[in-house]
């Protein structure tokens, strides 16, 4: 299963995906594409011998033009799966439709709670008892697609938002490789009613 990973920044989730590659795992990262030339994740990919490409959104007149170029760049690698790993761009409906059923994202909250940005602060400010992260299929609704797997952790009364953020990251790095592996193994797919694992609706 050929996987193209899109990043914008640190790429710690990319690193977790790189580290999960093994002879028994059918997921193979064929390329990493970043919209920012200074994304540290590009160095992680290069260190692992994975081809990289930079496509800056600033070089395009509008979102449609950027997404069209991004699609062409991705499709040149002929991926079976496209993985958003801290890719900080909102994608056009045309892009999302093109990769329907083969586009995954990780979001740092227990969806449907806290869609959008600044999720850790918002979870604490809301007085939530627990927080976490979700891997979901991407649909046209921002952070609204069917969830494949979530990890929940209790929010400790005495911890800082930074500590909570770090603890959520640990969970992200656990569940994203798992979901990608399930997809590569043919166990996880997007059905008519939502995400399916081993033929059962999630
Ligand atoms: C993660 O928190 C992820 O949930 C969110 O963006 C962040 C990316 O972090 N979508 P990294 O680049 O993988 O370190």
UniProtKB/TrEMBL annotation:
Domain Formyl transferase N-terminal: 2-180
Binding-site positions, N(1)-(5-phospho-beta-D-ribosyl)glycinamide: 11-13
Active site, per annotation: 107 (proton donor)
Record keywords: Purine biosynthesis, Transferase
Coiled-coil regions listed: none
Reactions that this protein is recorded to catalyse: N(1)-(5-phospho-beta-D-ribosyl)glycinamide + (6R)-10-formyltetrahydrofolate = N(2)-formyl-N(1)-(5-phospho-beta-D-ribosyl)glycinamide + (6S)-5,6,7,8-tetrahydrofolate + H(+)
CDD domains tied to this protein: FMT_core_GART
One Gene Ontology term, aspect cellular component: cytosol
Pathway, per record: Purine metabolism; IMP biosynthesis via de novo pathway; N(2)-formyl-N(1)-(5-phospho-D-ribosyl)glycinamide from N(1)-(5-phospho-D-ribosyl)glycinamide (10-formyl THF route): step 1/1
Residues that, per the record, bind (6R)-10-formyltetrahydrofolate: 63, 88-91, 105
EC number: 2.1.2.2
GO biological process: 'de novo' IMP biosynthetic process
Entry GO MF terms: phosphoribosylglycinamide formyltransferase activity
Matching InterPro entries: Formyl_transf_N, Formyl_transf_N_sf, GART, GART_AS
Sites annotated Raises pKa of active site His: 143
Family affiliation: Belongs to the GART family.
Name of the protein described by the UniProt record: Phosphoribosylglycinamide formyltransferase
Native organism: Stutzerimonas degradans
């Amino acid at each position: 299963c050929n996987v193209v990973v899109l990043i914008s920044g640190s790429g710690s989730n990319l690193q977790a995906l790189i580290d999960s590659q093994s002879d028994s795992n059918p997921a193979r990262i064929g390329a990493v594409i970043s919209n920012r030339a200074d994304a540290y994740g590009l160095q992680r990919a290069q260190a692992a011998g994975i081809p990289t490409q930079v496509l800056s959104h600033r070089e395009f007149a509008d979102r449609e033009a950027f997404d069209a170029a991004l699609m062409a760049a991705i499709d040149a690698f002929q991926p079976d799966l496209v993985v958003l790993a801290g890719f900080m761009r909102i994608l056009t409906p045309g892009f999302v439709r093109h990769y329907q059923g083969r586009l995954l994202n990780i979001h740092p909250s227990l969806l449907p709670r806290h869609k959008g940005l600044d999720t850790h602060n918002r979870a604490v400010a809301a007085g939530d008892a627990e927080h976490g992260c979700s891997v979901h299929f991407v649909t046209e609704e921002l952070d609204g697609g069917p969830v494949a797997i979530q990890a929940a952790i209790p929010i400790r009364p005495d911890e800082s938002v930074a500590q909570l953020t770090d603890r959520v990251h640990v969970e992200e790095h656990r569940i994203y490789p798992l979901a990608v592996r399930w997809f590569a193994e043919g166990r996880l797919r997007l059905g008519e009613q939502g995400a399916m694992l081993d033929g059962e609706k999630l």
